[in-house]
Design a protein that fits this description.
The complex is a heterodimer of chains A (183) and B (242).
Chain A (H helix, E strand, L loop, with lengths): L1 H4 L12 H5 L9 H134 L5 H11 L2
Helix pairs in contact in A: 3-4
Chain B lengths: L11 E3 L4 E2 H20 L9 H21 L7 H18 L11 H23 L17 H46 L2 H4 L3 H37 L4
Antiparallel strand pairs in B: 1-2
Helix pairs in contact in B: 1-3, 2-3, 2-7, 3-7, 4-5, 4-7, 5-7
The chains are: A mainly alpha (183), B mainly alpha (242).
């Protein structure tokens, strides 16, 4: 192979133009084998280095960027969802609190109403009992007073009789007279 | 004055192992690709800097080209297609430097790459689909009597793929570099031909500048075309029978 590579200057007629000497270089078949061998070596090495070293790195860079962008977008979407969820939870908590406040107010109002009702009832009962007591006292006083009326009448009668007759009647007679006049 | 085709001459550097200027620039391209990409991605930044952006754009560009033509399953060929694209692109662009050897202007190199692509398609097609892979040559919905002709045409078209794939890249790079050299040569020849002719030197110089710009475009476009066609052929291996 090596000797075929060398231009065959010796076989040409000496003194020819230089251009004629080299013929048409791309068709110089004696260079083909060497070029093919070196092309094969070069291309195999190039292919190996590119496919094992350069392209994985390049693809890695591009994929990595794509992944990061996708992840960022996912994160943003997740955060948006979380924010929306938080918003919903807040609304719910607010509604719950409002409900509880209302229930509490209702309860308090009911309790207060019941308390004042009870107080009023107790007061009414107290007043009623005092009224009844007072009425009883009045009745007793009245009865007592009425029981004194006979005594007063007897006294009055004996005083009148004494004034008229000048002498006190017998108490029995006054009693009898009172009995007779009793309505 | 050197001949315009002298730049395509393969010159031995270490003859004993067949190491030539062609080998040197193949290795140089590969080293530039691997070194450049490793350097660009060394920080693994989340927010890429300029160099890392370029690396990521190249990655996404090839990935999009591949998935657009061959679908999601095409991504299993991503390292292969990426290596091909980067190698052809770097070799093309490196060849644009004055005095540098253009690896892709060698028909044997482009043909070897094309055979690698077609070989991958055929081997993967048969391993994955077995006999069904031959359905590639039998389009559906063709009248029975027309089928033999169609199959012959499909086979010829399939066999011409590596030739067209390699010739396109080779011819573009070759023609561009010859044109550049020719117009550059005009500048020198006119300058040496006397004062009257020397006044005309700006014309081919402007042409050379314009062609240089065009060749940078061609270097990129041809690398892209090579990659897109590779993706289309790989799609045949992934989904034969359309």
């Amino acid at each position: 192979m090596a000797q075929a590579q060398i231009p065959q200057a010796g076989t040409e007629v000496p003194g020819d133009a230089h251009a004629a000497d080299i013929g048409f270089p791309p068709f110089a078949t004696e260079t083909f084998a060497g070029q093919i061998i070196w092309l094969a070596i070069t291309f195999v090495v190039l292919y190996t280095l590119l496919s094992k070293l350069v392209l994985p790195r390049l693809t890695g860079i591009i994929e990595n960027r794509r992944e990061i962008i996708a992840k960022d977008l996912d994160d943003a979407a997740a955060m948006k969802t979380r924010a929306e969820e938080a918003g919903v939870a807040y609304e719910k908590a607010l509604a719950e609190a409002r409900g509880r406040a209302q229930a509490l107010a209702q309860e308090t109002r009911g309790k207060l109403a019941a308390e004042s009702d009870a107080k009023r009832k107790a007061l009414e009962a107290d007043l009623g009992s005092r009224l009844a007591e007072a009425e009883a006292t009045i009745t007793a006083k009245k009865n007592e007073a009425m029981s004194h009326v006979r005594g007063i009448a007897a006294e009055t009668a004996s005083a009148i009789v004494e004034r008229i007759t000048g002498q006190a009647p017998a108490p029995q007679a006054v009693e009898a007279a009172l009995d007779r006049t009793k309505v | 004055m050197a001949s315009p085709i002298e730049q395509f001459q393969v010159k031995p550097i270490i003859p004993i192992i067949n190491f030539t200027n062609s080998s040197l620039f193949m290795i140089g391209s590969a080293a530039l690709i691997v070194g450049g990409l490793l350097l660009a991605t060394r920080n693994r930044s989340l927010i890429p800097g300029r160099a890392q952006s370029v690396a990521e754009i190249l990655h996404d560009f090839v990935a999009t080209t591949l998935t657009d033509t061959a679908g999601r399953e095409g991504m299993k060929f991503f390292p292969f297609v990426f290596s091909l694209f980067m190698f052809v692109l770097t070799a093309n662009l490196l060849g644009m430097m004055p005095g540098f050897f253009t690896v892709t202007s060698q028909i044997v190199v482009t043909f070897a790459l094309a055979l690698l692509v077609i070989g991958t398609v055929v081997i993967y097609g048969f391993v994955k689909h077995g006999f069904h892979f031959l359905g590639l040559f039998v389009p559906s919905g063709v009248p029975k009597w027309l089928l033999p002709f169609i199959v012959v045409i499909e086979i010829i078209s399939f066999l011409s793929r590596p030739i067209s794939l390699s010739l396109r890249l080779f011819a573009n790079m070759l023609a561009g570099h010859i044109a550049l050299k020719v117009f550059g040569g005009f500048v020198v020849s006119l300058g040496a031909a006397g004062i009257g002719f020397a006044l005309l030197t700006p014309l081919p110089l402007l042409m050379a500048v314009a062609i240089t710009a065009l060749e940078f475009l061609v270097a990129g476009v041809q690398a892209y075309v090579f990659t897109v066609l590779t993706c289309i052929y790989l799609n045949d291996a992934l989904h034969p029978g359309h």
